Amino acid sequence: MATSAPISRRRASADDPRVILEEQVGVFEPVPPFPPRTEREAEFYTLGDGEMFLNMGPQHPSTHGVLRVVVKINGEVVTDLDPVLGYLHRGVEKLCENSDYHQAICYLDPLEYVSALFCEWPAVMAFEKLMDVTVPRRAEYIRVLSGELLRIASHALFMGWMALDLGGLTPILWSFIERDEIVEMLGALTGARMLFNYYRIGGVNGDLNHEFMSRLGDWMTRATEQHDANVRLLNENEIFVRRMRDLGRVDRETALRMCMTGPNLRATGVPFDVRRSHPYSVYPELDFDIPTRDEGDCLARYLLRLDEVKQSLRIIDQCLNQMPDGPVMAKLPRLLRPRPGRAYAAVESPRGQYANYAISDGTDQPFRLRIHDPSFIHLQSVGLLMPGHLIADTMAVMASLDPIMGGVDK
Amino acid sequence: MTVVGRAWNRLSLPGKLFFTLAPLLLVTTIAVIAILVIFGQLIVDFLAANLPIVRFVVAVTAVLLMSVPTAFLIIYMEMKVIALMNLRLGPDRVGPYGSLLSVVHGLKVLMKEDFTPTGVDSIVFTLAPVVVYLASVMSLLVIPFAPGLFGQDLNVGLLYFFAVGGLSVVGLLMAGWSSFNKYSLLGGLRSAAQIISYEIPLTLSVVGVLILAGTMSLNQIVLDQRGSFLDWFAFKQPLGLLIFFIAATAEANRTPFDLTEADSEIVAGFATEYSGMRFGFFFFAEYVNVFIMSALIVSLFFGGWTAPFDWPWPVHIELNPGGLGIGLLILLAVAPVVGTLVLAAPFWVARSSMPAWQALIIGFVLLNLLIGLGLFALAFLGWEWVVGLFWFLGKTYGFVFTFVWMRGTLPRVRIDQLMGFAWKWLLPASLLNLFVTAGAVVVLGR
Amino acid sequence: MSQLVPGLGLARGMLLTLRRFFEPKATIRYPEEPPEGSPKFRGRLQLLYDEYGTLKCETCFQCAQACPIECIDMGGIDTKNRYHIHWGPPETYGERRDESALRRSGRPVPDPAYEHFGPIDLAPVEAALAEYDYDPKNLLPILEATQQAYGYLPVAAIKHISNMSGAWYAMIYGTASYYGHLRFEKKGDREQAAAVAASRPPESSYRSALQAALMGGAPVEDTTQPPAANKARGSSKVRGSSKVRGSSKVRGSSKGRGRPPRAN
Fold this sequence. Notes:
The structure holds three protein chains of three kinds. By secondary structure, chain A is an alpha+beta fold. Chain A folds into two domains: 8-84, no CATH class; 92-372, Cytochrome-c3 Hydrogenase, chain B (Orthogonal Bundle). Chain A contains 16 helices and ten strands. In chain A, the strands form four sheets. Chain A has a three-stranded antiparallel β-sheet, with no helix packed on it. A three-stranded antiparallel β-sheet of chain A has the order 8-9-10. In chain A, helix 3 runs antiparallel to helix 4 and helix 6 (170-190) runs antiparallel to helix 7 (210-235). Chain B is mostly helical. In chain B, 73% of the residues lie in helices and 0% in strands. Chain B is built from 15 helices and no strands. Chain C is mainly α. Chain C has helices spanning 8-22, 62-66, 93-105, 123-131, 139-150, 155-165, 169-178, 187-199, 203-215, 226-233, and strands at residues 74-75, 237-238. The radius of gyration of chain C is 27 Å and the shape is elongated. Chain C starts with 7 loop residues before the first helix and ends in a 26-residue tail after the last strand. The model of chain C is unreliable at 81-97, 111-116 and 219-264 (pLDDT under 50). The chains are: A alpha+beta, B mainly alpha, C mainly alpha. Chains B and C meet through helix 3 and helix 14 of B and helix 1 of C.
């Protein structure tokens, strides 16, 4: 157990001012006040020689959201760390059980709040499976189009954050400019800029409109150029590259063992992408590559996301070319009461495999809606990646995994 | 008495203040004049006998007074330049183009609660910002701003500079240690490690210049670089300049070496627990440091206050206003009116919608600008120190801009890379620079 | 290339930021230049008006009922132009959330707005609720029993039913207002309400005022009181919208794209 000299202060008692109390004040150790519950906890909260705890978060300037990481350091070197979750817990799964199928979708939006459409998508797909609804093809294309746009926005933000956590001030603002264009565009399409609530069971809420298409066309003409200009600042920067290379390296087996998905897994060389391996929506009709890299370090994860942006641009281009005419909503009754059953659906979100598992008991409310969030899965691997690196790199490694705390704490 | 009392009660607050202060002022003025008349010669003799002390006191006061506006200016520059590089607008509300925002920041910092957390070593905690700030400000004493415009012309000026500048690490360490916060502790220790490591290449890289100039007085070093810009030491010591620039960046805790207050790692480093004006001292000290480092680079390598090419100045202008006689009075009376009218006329003619008074205001402002410019030009032509200050501040703020520019572009290096860079690259390079310079001096003979 | 020459990448990055230094900026100077929202933007709640300048809202309370976090709170003059039905307790959002949580948990909710609607003897309501097992599915029998006891449905009784059965006030009100035989006022009050309704200008006055505004022609009839009456009529409120536009300001078609009216 950590010990430190107690700091005491003398003050007069509130009951009897003649009595002087000596009270211990202001020693903030991350040691929990209870006896350790697990072996791991006992091991972690025992300090070795020259070691010290450092509490990073939940109000640290650069944790992504309200994550608290208790770091055990020896000098500047991190020897062990313990992420503490739950500061953003809202009980979304339980809320969904108490609302009907349409209302449940709007609860799912704020989970991955930087790419909210990808939270609606698997839920909508699972509910459609429960109800045997066929989604019109135009609606599917619109879903893919908006989803890929949001993937670019999310990756743009990732690059800015990555640089900000390494101390660069500028790229985050350039990324936000890039993201803002996309988000405004989606605002014209969906009616909201961040929490869209756009995908509906059986289609989407509203067809493509003129303002969205004009903004999209305007943006597509300069998207690649602008993106390349933005990333050139970091990609060629020796300081950035030297810091990112060989940082937080994870090999293929470990990545698979830790259930990593998405860019973090692909950066280790496994070409697993839900869009190709378990195709959904109209992705089989589209032509795109799955970029992979073999290094598995932070730089690989960073560069892989840049490659993905290019592929997303390709997909958007094809979507616009192949967009069929037709309705965007299936014919559905007003009150949705699926037959009892269960359904599972997964999509490839910018962070990895985002999946929902829904159980219906025949009423108009889901009996259970389980949310599988990739950020949560990736966060469990920081304990593997961090030890041996420096304090300065905790945030860099964390940023390269790109967790969104809204989804982690649910 | 009652009459006076009633009259007094009728007065408003400004009136009361006036009738209280005016007699006091009158009495004080008379007393001062009397003292000056009686003991004037004595005082002048005494001051003349102790001229170095007087000079020192005046210089310290001037430097202390100068440091705060300098910090304001650089803070504003940093906010605005980084904003423009970020494709933002930056401050644009307070004052023209937001230029008063940093002043408002200063006032805000003054008004904030000066908070001392539980568990700090309060004496050290209180002293730390003072040490840091004074160390920065005292370094300004030896910098030659212009010919004849410097605090002290020490013959060990550079040594004094490094010695006093090195004191700031003590302040940072004090702040980090006393704050009772692990982030502060880490920040303080980082600053100690970093600044001590970079002191060595910083000092060694200058030795080449010292060998060439043959003196440690900054004034003499600047005078050595007189002539065209080809005489600057930057061209004789390019490697030394590079090393000095990098080491100075680290010494001033600027990006990419701002590890002591890396906000994404250790919240604000040594300043985490500080608030109010104590934090303000740290904040100002950082920007004064930037100014000092830029000034030092300019003085050592870029000719200080000397112009980049041979100016035929100072020009001695034979102006004798007394020669005009009564004409001078008439000129002073007539010229402003005529000038205002003449300058206002084109605006009034060109824009029919403009009322006459607006045109007159424009004319008046323009006239004032013109007179100001004329006076500056006269001073520039006539007084050497105005030219010197112009060139010195121009070059210095060029380097301040470079520091800010780097902050807007570069990410932060890691602590091990930082130390490795200092010991594995900068130190050997500065030693190499030293040996090559010494060898060249021995072989070529100055 | 930048691999070979150390510092070249840094220098190129510096040049890039220097170039951006002179490029046009992306900032929107907000209060001076409000950002142009898209027509589909649904960032704020708002009551819309039809082409006659009357509220489109029929005060059916379905929105209040469907709102998952109960942020919609309604009141106004009902569609038959009879009486004012503002029940929302004048409390803050936080308290409303609190009340909502309490109600969902099934416990009785302390309600400061009770007095406002006149306390009544709640024994008959209790009896009716007990008879039907406090079940909101038996809402209609409960309401009928209540009406039988009081002769009408007092607001306090409805609130009590809402508190005890867990059904939303909006739902009970919606149910009660749907059935013709349920009423919210005493028998004598209906005449009074009818008199109030008669004192309001007829709908044709809105039309004539509108016509006057649009066509520039003289109003056909009833020129004495339309503006004030319009104001009184358009006093429905949705919590969350800063200000509801009075119906005296009719949105012309001169703006072109047929956007919904928007404050500011």
